[in-house]
Amino acid sequence: MAAVFVYPAPTGIEPSALPKVLLSWSSGKDSAWALHLLRKRKDIQVVGLLTTVNEVFERVAMHAVRTELLRAQAEAVGLPLWQVQLPCPCSNEEYERIMSQAMDRAGREGIAGVAFGDLFLEDVRRYREERMRGTGLEPLFPLWGLPTAELSRTMVAAGLKAHLTCVDPNQIGAAFAGRLYDDDLLNELPPSADPCGERGEFHTFAHDGPMFSRPLCVRAGEIVERDGFIFADMLPA
Fold first, then answer.
1. Is residue 168 part of a domain?
2. The pLDDT of residue 65
3. Exposed/middle/buried for 106, CB within 10 Å: 0-12, 13-18, 19+?
4. What's 93's domain CATH number?
């Protein structure tokens, strides 16, 4: 079972008085590790998980994780879930309109910033910064610039457990779908693949680690091909 960590506030400052931050939560390992690092900081408090969900299929966008497992994650990390419903299909214009509404809500509720689990893609970071400009919210990137070869091993060694839920077969083998993200998998990835999947090689579902108060019992179910990607359906065990 994952260890339960208590993250103290600066001496003399009540945790409730710290700036409030939302974490963009994909349900995967990188956002889970971002939460772990953010909770070590003594100048902010993470108050919620912001997740986009396909409203037709009731699954996390791209990661294809069932919302029942998403809610179980939020409960296990002890944070409320800000679930943003996206239509299917969803144009970029519609996506930006819906996310703008979410940012407006955040501002009204006293949120100071939104954290993202991005690692090194400059265009992705620039897009997020541009979209948040003028909202009054500060974008935070707690994982930015960390060497991914080292980061991947650090996460595994710390007890973070995740399964691959989506694989791009043009970048790595389809057989990786549904597998546990561990040292064996990292050793088998092709040299061209980023070990954290930052270029879209794969997406994950995190279910144990130092950011969880308890592990989530899950198993990989049906594996299907859809829209050029291989998806592994994660199910409660």
1. yes
2. 95
3. buried
4. 3.40.50.620
Could you tell me where the DSSP H helices lie in the chain? 29-38, 67-77, 92-108, 122-132, 148-157, 183-188
Residue 20: is its pLDDT beyond 90? yes
- Are 72 and 48 in contact by the 8 Å Cβ rule? The answer is no
* Domain span including residue 216: 19-236
Show Cβ contacts of residue 147 under 8 Å, excluding neighbours closer than 6 positions. none
Amino acid at 185: L
Q: How far apart are CA 188 and CA 193, in angstroms?
A: 10
Name the residue type at position 79: L
The whole-angstrom separation of Cα 142 and Cα 139 is 10
Query: What would the mean pLDDT of 146-170 be, rounded to a whole number?
Result: 98
Q: Dihedral sign, CA of 224, 225, 226, 232?
A: positive
Closest CA to 82 of 62, 64, 99: 99
The total of structural domains in the chain comes to: 1
With a cut of 70, say whether residue 14 has pLDDT above it: no
Residue 234, both tokens? 């994660």
Residue 100 has pLDDT above 80, yes or no: yes
For the entire predicted model, the pTM comes to: 0.91
